Amino acid sequence: KYWGKLQLRFRIYVGKVQGLWQHEQVLKKKKETQEQSEDEESRLERLVREGEARLMSGDLDEAENDFIAAISIDHKSTSAYRGLGDTYLAKNEVEEARQTYRFLSRLEPDDDGVLVKLAEIAENQGDLEEAIENYQKAVLVNDSFSPRFYHLAELLLKVEQKDVAKEAIVQAVELEPQNPKYLDLLIETAIICGDKDLTADTLEKLRMVNPDNQKLDGFKDRMLKI
Prior knowledge:
mainly alpha, about 85% helix, elongated, disordered N terminus
């Protein structure tokens, strides 16, 4: 009877030891995984940092290698894709840059800077429709940059979307109400749209901001013909 009790206690003890050993193994594996993850994160940050430095110094091939190595660690690293896109653009590898920025815009749809770069690439390649689409997306994400609205209005006029162009340049003027260049384009657009009231109102604003503007009399004559 006594021997049986000893055997029972021993089995309980062995069970506890086995349980503790298994627990330790789980903790050890978890720790190793965390350490490996931390090592990869540190390496990723280093590669992106070095890639950015090499891009700035003009060492473009090495910068490209750094960013690609960073992406191999994390396939969703936005900083690595952004650096790679900028590197391709600096190397004048436009199509590679476009594809990289497109993928980045899917990862970060609210990155207005990437959308502007896509718009600029499309415009340089003569694809005004795509350029307009990306500029429109950019101003929807961030409506605080007046030059984007101004340039968007210019592009829209080129593709004869005059009413939408008017709305774009109105936004630019609201952000910078005393910018003579913006007022000039707003008058031009208002005349094209046949909006006499807007033309007259903006013409008066331009007269107050820039009374020596040589276009004032010409704008007035055109306004009277609306």
